[in-house]
Amino acid sequence: MDDFKHIYYYWDFGLGTKFCDDVIRFSKSLNKRKGKTGNDTVQQLNPLRKSEVIWMNEGWIYKEILKFIHTANREGGYNFDLKEAEAIQYTRYGLNQFYGWHKDLIEGSEKSTIRKLSICINLTDPKEFEGGDFLVNVPHPEPEQTKKIRLDFMKKRGAVVVFPSTLYHQVAPITKGVRHSLVCWMKGPRFK
Fold first, then answer.
1. 192 falls within a domain
2. What parts of the chain have a pLDDT lower than 70?
3. Three-state DSSP class for residue 146
4. Burial annotation 128-139 (CB, 10 A radius, 16+ → b, else e)
5. What is the edge-to-edge ordering of all strands in the sheet holding 49-50?
6. Does the residue 152 lie in any domain?
7. What is the C-alpha to C-alpha distance for residues 51 and 132, in angstroms, rounded to an integer?
8. How far apart are alpha carbons 192 and 190 in whole angstroms?
9. 172-183 in b/e burial notation, b at 16+ Cβ within 10 A?
């Protein structure tokens, strides 16, 4: 992995219950779609992912989450040149739904900006779901030293994690209940 101060930067209870409830309530007024994978031009259903998503652009949500991205960028030692946030993705994972190993950096994009930092937020009380573990894959030049780390704090309602968009991560299958989350990506100029 790159020489960052932190592989990921997190807050156990970054966002309060009211914010989580407000986002979940707001999501019910919007149309859900099946989660897809892809790049800037082609998106498709993929066995790597099974979930429902809603795209959001609400200022009150950005106001709350962007401060975490900027703090992590500075204090986590990433110090990326960040320019703009993409649309916010609200994700609902029901029974047996998941998102397999993936990274958020879109390869081969022709755009002048790329995803640099990703933010994930758990909106659900841990008593309302089982499974759905959030894991990261920390690479190593010697494959046997690669580590898969379960981020147990991401089970907490309002937990926030920020990490470089090059980091492989996954959401394990839900075995009971429903898990609601928010994801957003901060973009900046291509790396030189």
1. no
2. 1-4, 33-46, 107-110
3. coil
4. ebebbbbebbee
5. 49-50, 98-102, 168-171, 134-138, 147-150
6. yes
7. 11
8. 6
9. ebbeebbbbbbb
Are 188 and 83 in contact, with CB atoms under 8 Å apart?
yes
User: Helix H segments across 28-134?
Assistant: 59-75
Cα distances (angstroms) measured from residue 18 to each of 13, 114, 157, 191: 12, 32, 11, 38
Range(s) of the domain holding residue 23: 9-37+45-187
Is the model's pTM score more than 0.70? Answer: yes
Does residue 83 fall inside a structural domain?
yes
What CATH number is attached to the domain comprising 164?
2.60.120.620
* CA angle (118, 156, 95) in 5-degree steps: 85
β-pairing verdict for 9-11 and 160-164: antiparallel
**127: Cα within 13 Å, side-chain hemisphere:** 0
Q: For 60-98, how does the pLDDT look when each residue is reduced to its tens digit (9 = 90+)?
A: 999 999 999 999 999 999 999 999 999 999 999 999 999
Residue 190: alpha-carbon gap to chain centroid: 20
Interatomic CA distance for residues 77 and 49, integer angstroms: 31
Q: Residue 106's pLDDT is what?
A: 77
Tokens for 135? 């894991």
